[in-house]
Amino acid sequence: MALRRKPSGAGGEPVLAAAGKDGTSGGGASRRSGQSGGTGKGAARAAGAGGGSRGADRGEKSPDAGGGKKKGAGGGGTSKLAQIRLVYKITRERDPSVLWWTLLGLAVPVVVGVLLGVFVGPIYLWLPIAILLGVVVALNVFSRRVQRTAYAEMEGKPGAAAGVVERMRGDWRLTPAVGVNRHQDVVHRVVCRAGVVLIAEGRGRGPRELLVAEKRRIRKIVGEAPLTDYIVGTGEGEIPLPKLQSTLMRMRRELRKRDVDALERRLRAVSAPALPIPKGPIPRNISRGGRPR
Fold this sequence. Notes:
Elements: E1 2-6, E2 15-19, H1 24-94, H2 98-119, H3 123-154, H4 160-166, E3 173-180, E4 186-192, E5 195-201, H5 206-222, E6 227-232, H6 244-249, H7 257-271
């Protein structure tokens, strides 16, 4: 038996096979090597295809995700600008001078900054400060005019005082419409660190009567906590709606947070709705078993 050198295999290494008389051994080895090499190439192609598909999936997902984030951020900015534009349009319909007041709030600090830069110091130092201050003043003036227009629109409508309290910052626990009459006079109750505040709105004697009844009902529950009442309106002894927020904010804080929580729980227990009782006459011919005779 002689040995002969066969062609290199799939990996490049020489393959030694024993050649017999018919040479079947070397052929079988070479055929097995070729089959394994073909299998390896097919696996490599499949792996390449799988990697390409995964890469394609990653490539498709990442631009969409990035685009979605960019669209979300841009959409939020656009919605805010649209909201400011809508507020300005509504305010200008009821207050045509809002634009001029806003521009005046911007121009006054800028002019003062330019004068200070010319007569006192370098203008490049004073001008940026004046512009920033002008923007702040203009936004403040614009928000004040918007708030004033909103108060004028709400004034005289039922529930306007409750709407003002709901928009206030801080711990103001509002219970709207604890007392109402047929003339749409209403009393709201607010529990805060200043105590219990009753706010009535309406015309005539109706709000005062509702206030007296509500104070009589909760006097024992409140105990030593301060109890204050206001009437919203334009008459004598009444508070205009635009001044309600500032009046409440100036009240002296005399209670701690835990006292406010306990007071609110007691008032809620008293204000809980009664159990429903069926209407009509009470049946008298009921036996002890609970069935009517």
